[in-house]
């Protein structure tokens, strides 16, 4: 009773706020939560049709509907509710009140897809949507999908796509999963979705070893997660700024850059095994020497980038300002990362994360051996210039720092060459709750990260000892 009274008092005080403040608050939460709040107050009932940000998510509905049926039927019931909610919310809109963003996340079932598309298409005809996004799921997760499932889901998508070209022509963002398309299907999608600014494909392809040819006048962001593409050819994308590719399957360079004059950020992530070919950045980035932000994720396994000499790399890394090297395996030397400093003269920020993320790694020894996972080994690298100095690097961040020679030596070397260093931030290992449920045979060493002020001061002195230009004050131990 006391909790109910408290909730009613909070709702009463909330409903007394001016409409513009209420709308600002309601647009910060999921649309279904906003609707539930408005239903509880007579004064706020008028607000839902005035929301300019709409996010209708099948995952949100799952919290409110509790059918005691099997999983597939439960998904179908949620999907029907998403379609009905979308139709009701959009049908009540005043055409004079703009919608800035509309996002609908739902499952790939023809009847509901058709209903949602028709509701959104009617809204597009009367409103200018700055952002219109579809996030399309399948009833099976990626790891459960067979080849037959992928083909069946793609056929289902193509039927829907053919029935609703108008709504796809108005989308700005599209995220698809678990689809094995025909040779020209993705081309047709890009050709129809003329407003598209962001495309994400997760476990999608056009067949084993297919090559994806991408050209689009408006696309700004492209993300590919897994799938069986042999390569992604970015032919002509005049507005493309960001590319992310995680989990390519073959040994050739995963990306081929054509005309992408605005590309500034590149993210690559993969699990390296013994057969994984090392990427040579001097070749991969030869056509895009203007990239300013580079992130490489090694997923706690083999390092799959080849340290190259500055003469080869400097022409392609000359504009680079931010580099993130994520999930380097623990216990291995990180000196090799200096090759980026030697080649990227404009670099301002370098972030290195060292982490064995056990719950996402393959831990079975037999499986590791069968699939060619590597034992931990240091990357061979030799410095190219003894008296090299870097004038632009101002920030170094290391996540997974331990008071070991590997890290101390590395930080000393960076402080020695980075003459304008302003901040060195050192973080402990990342903590993952799921890693606590590991096989007890996996031995995880306890962290030795400094905790006390005395330990931190001693490390600062050790790191800066006999470095006359290095200030201990720039070293920060972050909690």
TrEMBL record:
The residue ranges of the F-box domain are: 11-47
Q: Which Pfam families match?
A: F-box (PF00646), LRR_At1g61320_AtMIF1 (PF23622)
Q: SUPFAM superfamilies under this entry?
A: F-box domain, RNI-like
Q: Which PANTHER family match?
A: OJ000223_09.16 PROTEIN (PTHR32153)
The protein depicted here goes by the name F-box domain-containing protein
What organism is recorded for this protein?
Triticum aestivum
Name of the gene encoding the protein in the UniProt record? LOC123055172
């Amino acid at each position: 009773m006391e909790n109910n009274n408290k909730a009613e008092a909070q709702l009463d005080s909330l409903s007394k706020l001016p409409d513009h403040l209420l709308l600002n608050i309601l647009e910060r939460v999921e649309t279904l939560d906003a609707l539930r709040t408005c239903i509880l107050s007579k004064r706020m009932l008028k607000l839902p049709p005035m929301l300019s940000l709409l996010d209708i998510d099948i995952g949100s509905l799952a919290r409110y509907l509790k059918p005691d049926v099997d999983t597939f039927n439960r998904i179908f019931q949620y999907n029907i509710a998403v379609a009905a909610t979308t139709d009701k919310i959009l049908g009540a809109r005043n055409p004079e009140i703009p919608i800035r963003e509309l996002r609908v996340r739902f499952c790939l079932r023809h009847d509901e897809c058709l209903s949602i598309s028709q509701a959104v298409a009617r809204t597009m005809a009367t409103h200018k949507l700055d952002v219109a996004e579809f996030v399309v799921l399948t009833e099976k997760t990626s790891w459960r999908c067979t080849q037959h499932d992928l083909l069946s889901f793609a056929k289902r998508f193509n039927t829907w796509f053919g029935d609703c070209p108008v709504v796809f022509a108005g989308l700005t963002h599209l995220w698809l999963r678990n689809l094995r398309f025909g040779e020209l299907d993705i081309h047709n999608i890009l050709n129809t979705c003329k407003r598209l600014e962001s495309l994400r494909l997760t476990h999608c392809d056009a067949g084993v070893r297919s090559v994806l040819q991408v050209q689009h006048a408006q696309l700004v962001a492209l993300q590919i997660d897994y799938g069986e593409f042999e390569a992604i050819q970015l032919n002509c994308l005049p507005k493309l700024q960001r590319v992310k590719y995680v989990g390519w399957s073959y040994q050739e360079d995963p990306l081929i850059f054509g005309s992408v004059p605005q590309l500034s950020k590149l993210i690559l992530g993969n699990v390296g095994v013994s057969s994984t070919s090392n990427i040579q950045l001097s070749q991969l980035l030869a056509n895009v020497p203007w990239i300013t932000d580079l992130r490489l994720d090694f997923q706690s396994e083999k390092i799959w980038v080849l340290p190259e000499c500055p003469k080869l790399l400097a022409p392609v890394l000359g504009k680079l300002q931010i580099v993130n090297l994520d999930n380097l395996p623990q216990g291995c030397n990180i000196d090799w990362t200096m090759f980026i400093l030697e080649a990227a003269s404009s670099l301002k920020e370098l972030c290195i994360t060292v982490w064995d993320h056990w719950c996402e790694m393959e831990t079975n020894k037999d499986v590791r051996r069968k699939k060619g996972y590597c034992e931990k080994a240091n990357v061979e690298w030799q410095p190219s210039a003894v008296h090299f100095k870097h004038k632009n690097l101002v920030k170094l961040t290391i996540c997974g720092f331990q008071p070991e020679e590997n890290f101390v030596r590395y930080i000393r070397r960076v402080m020695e060459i980075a003459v304008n260093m302003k901040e060195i931030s050192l973080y402990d290992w990342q903590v993952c709750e799921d890693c606590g449920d590991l096989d007890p045979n996996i031995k995880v060493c306890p962290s030795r990260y400094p905790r006390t002020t005395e330990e931190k001061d001693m490390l600062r002195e050790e790191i800066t000892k006999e470095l006359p230009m290095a200030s201990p004050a720039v070293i920060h131990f972050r909690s």
